[in-house]
Amino acid sequence: MEPQKPTKRDYSVGIILSPSNGVLLQKKGEGYPWKNSETWWSGGKGPGQGSWIPSSSGAYYFGLFGGGMKDGETSEQTFAREKREEGLELLSGKAKDFLSQEFAERTSVRMREGTLNYFVVRFDGNIKNFRDKEAAGLVLACEEEVRGYFGGMIFKPNLDAILTLYDSLKEGIFQV
What we know:
Blueprint: E1 7-8, E2 11-17, E3 23-27, E4 39-42, E5 51-54, E6 62-63, E7 65-68, H1 75-85, E8 96-106, E9 111-122, E10 137-141, H2 143-147, H3 156-171
Parallel strand pairs: 1-9, 2-9
Antiparallel strand pairs: 2-7, 3-6, 3-10, 4-5, 4-8, 8-9
């Protein structure tokens, strides 16, 4: 079956960092609609500048926090709403606008594309305080784990944003 026409929607996504720069990841459950995407879009913003690549289809898939923008919302309003919906009200730190990038993704029957707007916010590092309403579990991953073990289980644009953040923090380009 051919995929339907892509659904166009923009998203606001949070990269939540511990004091030691660990990234809080959501473990996605079996019902997550994009968990078993056959392909991810890799790179490029113009025609012919990117390519579809096979995704990991392992037992686990990890995501960041956030969701789709509703009509009339700014990306900041979307991230604030998503924090409430996902039970992350304890994130009292101000979310800092970090990066926006185009993306596209498909499964055998669904396609989506749009802009991912990334925000960075710190938390106290105690993952026991989180009661995420949408995750099948939570993981606090250090940079080495993100670059290694978890890297193949994170949506490629999200992984790229996390790695860009790590590089920007090291270079002093971005501060949280």
